[in-house]
Model the fold of this input.
Amino acid sequence: MCLHEEKRHNLNDGDTVSLREVKGMSEINGRQFKIEVKSPHSFTIGDTREFSNYESGGIATEMKVPFEIKSFDLEKSLRYPYPPDAK
Done:
């Protein structure tokens, strides 16, 4: 997917985008895709051979996908600032 040549997308490999207003290839509208960055102006969304032909347009919106980070509670972290297996 090539974007406007004068605007950078500022995305990173593994970011998730939602696509809308794509003409042709309408199967991708409203869906989320993890991307692979090809340049500051383009990225790929994976294999699209099974979709109809792309015609024009489209808006990609970065989606913030929540993920879990495991940590100790504050009291335990203050008593043991480094995990026991840290080297």
Q: What stands out?
A: The chain has a mean pLDDT of 86.
